[in-house]
Design goal:
The complex is a heterodimer of chains A (325) and B (321).
Chain A lengths: L3 H15 L3 E5 L16 H5 L3 E3 L4 H13 L3 E5 L10 H11 L11 E7 L24 E4 L6 H11 L3 E6 L14 E6 L2 E6 L7 E5 L4 H15 L3 E6 L1 E3 L13 E8 L4 H13 L8 E5 L8 H7 L3 H12 L1
Parallel strand pairs in A: 1-2, 1-3, 3-4, 4-6, 5-6, 9-10, 9-12, 12-13
Antiparallel strand pairs in A: 5-11, 7-8, 8-10
Chain B lengths: L16 H22 L15 H6 L8 E4 L4 H7 L3 H9 L16 E2 L2 E3 L6 H12 L6 E6 L6 H12 L4 E7 L2 E2 L2 E2 L8 H7 L3 E5 L4 H17 L4 E6 L15 H9 L2 H8 L1 H24 L24
Parallel strand pairs in B: 1-3, 1-4, 4-5, 5-9, 8-9
Antiparallel strand pairs in B: 2-3, 6-7
Helix pairs in contact in B: 1-3, 1-11, 4-11, 5-6, 10-11
The chains are: A alpha/beta (325), B alpha/beta (321).
Chain lengths: 325, 321
């Protein structure tokens, strides 16, 4: 059984081993520290100067990664807490992403910006956010997120193959969970990019849920309770690619769709998913797609207050119950 | 790089009881926090200032009520040396009733009177520069604490440039502890902080002493000039982080940690006046034990009412001296 953190670490080892053009940069990523969340452990010992601990310089860090990519290599850049990717916004949005297309011909920029993300750890307002939504709709930029169902090595290969910069979000609580493990009620399969979690042997679900990697376990908790206490069957779709929103399989007959997103409500990933789904599903929908988001609020440090702001299993359950009642 | 601070010698003049109490309160407060985290009684993260307590204590009487102080992730000492409100701070960190900021900010995000901290490195310097622009000529100043590692952030230079161009009363206090999280300074800072300040024509003073009275006499005329000219000043303290960056994440070798410990003000102060030190140390330890017991017994902080309008800010007008 492999924890998501170990799986990611192994995937980075494999990536750097298989491709000598890959560099990795970030604050405190070198050994023995191996990164604030230990995802880069063992890399600097093994790959020497291709792995660099940098000064506290998120903007330059993203720019240096873009420069390596522009010069023909590939770069993985770690932002210690995704909150600080705000400091790299210009390099990502106005240089790396735009450069792929603003010079009148395709310019490959194979750059992955890894962003440890999310709350529920009591880290407070500037170390807990899910900022995915701020990067949606930037031409030339793709967004991915780690899930417990997708092989990280496969995702790294896909992102580099795009030849354009990608943000890769990794939920900090997900780090501690196991890859590929579900309780005995559910099983999952991959349908293209999208992991599909279904109740073993169930017929048509009452509700189809869509969420991103960091919310998988809270959503599964809700699905379990909905089944055991409310006798409602849910199916769950988890894309690894968040933007552009990929084709989500099997929704044509969905009775109801609910998108669950740890980002604060308003201009959110969930609303982008709904925007993509409405034209496709309009004819069959019986009611509007339900969006479940974190509150439009600063994320408090005190755990009991933080809990109330971020999406939790009970909120998901209540939203589904209300929608299908 | 570890720079050894002033060699052991008796403290002349000896620190006042008030200073010793302040130093020891901060020390015991931080030690208690590490214990609470270890016991799982507090969640999230915290950064203690073990070894660096003397910096804000030395600065305390040099800062006036009208001054605005900006702090960072390692800010408990900055706060406690300025405001005798350990109950409010601990309640904030533990998310209990009486929290300074309703439990929303936590350890790294405190705004109380004219003290403000934030957990994003380098963010505060431009803001401090804006406050200094408002305060210029009033005799008050904006003081911003930053670590050596934070000199990697571009915002630091954008702010220094403006503060120098516009002759603003900005006091930048650098706690140069030779490390940023796990990265030693020589691996993250090219050149020197002094030369960087010089490049902007900003006055720079390097403090190697851990003796609060000595530090005050060195800095008093320079801080006075920040107010009266006005002009920015970078006061760089050569100091040592003797604890982990946050909790349990120290990857330095035992020898390195030992070397840092040897520069601890605590040892020197204890040796200089053992009897008085031991008495005040016990007193502060007992106080912090009571403090922890009382805050831990309080109910959780209640969330601020969503409809409540923002509290009126402390007007940053500053009285003319
Ligand atoms: C913009 C930003 N990048 C990274 C971090 C994570 N971080 C917190 S403290 C720290 C090291 C700071 O070093 P320094 O400025 O020397 O202060 P010290 O911790 O030594 O007191 C880092 C990397 C942060 N809080 N903000
Ligand atoms: Mg430092």
């Amino acid at each position: 059984m492999t924890r998501v953190s170990e799986h990611l670490n192994q995937a980075l080892h494999d990536l750097m081993e298989s491709d000598p053009a890959v560099h990795l940069l970030g604050e405190d990523v070198s050994d023995p520290y191996g990164g604030a969340f230990k995802i880069t452990k063992g890399l600097s010992d093994r790959f020497g100067s291709r792995v660099r601990s940098t000064p506290l310089s998120e903007g330059a860090l993203a720019g240096v990664g873009a420069g390596l990519a522009l010069a023909g290599d590939k770069a993985v850049v770690e932002i210690m807490f995704s909150d600080f990717v705000a400091l790299a916004f210009d390099q990502i949005a106005n240089f790396a992403a735009k450069s792929t297309a603003m010079y009148g011909r395709p310019v490959p920029v194979p750059l992955i910006v890894r962003c440890p993300t999310g709350g529920n750890r009591g880290y407070g307002p500037t170390h807990s956010q899910s900022l995915q939504k701020h990067f949606i709709g930037v031409p030339g930029l793709s967004l991915f997120e780690m899930t417990p169902f997708h092989d990280a090595g496969g995702l790294f290969a896909r992102m580099f193959a795009l030849g354009r910069p990608c943000l890769f979000f990794e939920d900090k609580v997900l780090y501690t969970r196991h890859m590929y493990r579900l309780d005995d009620l559910f099983r999952f399969e991959l349908a293209g990019d999208v992991a599909r979690v279904v109740l073993d042997g169930a017929a048509e679900p009452d509700c189809t849920l869509v969420t991103h990697g960091g919310l998988v376990h809270r959503t599964l908790d809700a699905m379990r309770t909905l089944l055991l206490e409310d006798e409602l069957v849910c199916e769950l779709l988890v894309p690894a690619q968040l933007y552009p929103v990929p084709r989500l399989p099997g929704l044509e007959d969905a009775r109801h769709v609910c998108v669950i997103d740890d980002g604060g409500e308003g201009g959110s990933w969930s609303s982008e998913v709904a925007r993509v789904l409405y034209p496709r599903l309009w004819g069959g929908l019986r009611r509007p797609i339900t969006l479940v988001n974190s509150a439009d609020a600063v994320i408090p440090a005190a755990p009991h207050l933080e809990r109330g702001v971020l999406v939790q299993a009970d909120r998901i359950r209540a939203a589904v119950l209300e929608a299908v009642s | 790089m570890i720079v050894t601070a002033a060699s052991p010698q008796s403290l002349r003049p000896p620190p006042s009881d008030r200073d010793l109490r302040s130093l020891l309160l901060i020390r015991h407060f931080e030690l208690a926090l590490l214990r609470l985290f270890e016991q799982g009684a507090v969640s999230g993260t915290t950064h203690t200032c073990l070894g660096q307590e003397y910096i804000p204590v030395a600065l305390a009487p040099l800062l006036l009520d009208d001054d605005f102080v900006f702090s960072n992730h390692r800010g408990h000492g900055h706060f406690l040396a300025r405001h005798a409100e350990p109950y409010g701070l601990l309640a904030e960190i533990m998310g209990r009733e009486g929290a300074l900021c309703g439990g929303v900010g936590g350890s790294q995000h405190v705004y109380h009177r004219r003290f403000l901290s934030t957990g994003v490195q380098g963010e505060s310097l431009p803001v401090a520069t804006g406050v200094a622009l408002k305060l210029a000529g009033s005799g008050a100043l904006a003081c911003a604490y930053v670590g050596d590692g934070t000199w990697g952030e571009g915002a630091v230079y954008e702010a220094l440039n403006m503060a120098a161009l516009w002759r603003l009363p900005l006091l930048v206090v650098v706690e140069h502890n030779g490390i940023a999280q796990s990265t030693p300074t020589p691996a993250q800072l090219a050149g020197t902080i002094g030369a960087r300040a010089a490049a902007f024509g900003v006055r720079h003073h390097r403090v190697t002493s851990t003796d609060v009275e000595e530090i005050r006499s060195e800095l008093a005329p320079l801080v006075a000039a920040v107010r009266s000219e006005p002009s920015p000043l970078v006061a760089e303290f050569v100091t040592h982080r003797i604890g982990p960056h946050s909790k349990g994440d120290d990857t330095r070798s035992p020898e390195e940690i030992d070397r840092a410990r040897r520069s601890d003000w605590h040892t020197r102060y204890a040796a200089a006046d053992p009897e008085r030190f031991a008495r005040l140390d016990r007193e502060q330890q007992e106080f912090v034990d009571r403090l922890v017991a009382e805050i831990a017994a309080r109910p959780p902080a209640t969330p601020p009412a969503p409809s409540a309008s923002a509290p009126a800010p402390e007007p940053a007008t500053g009285r003319r001296p």
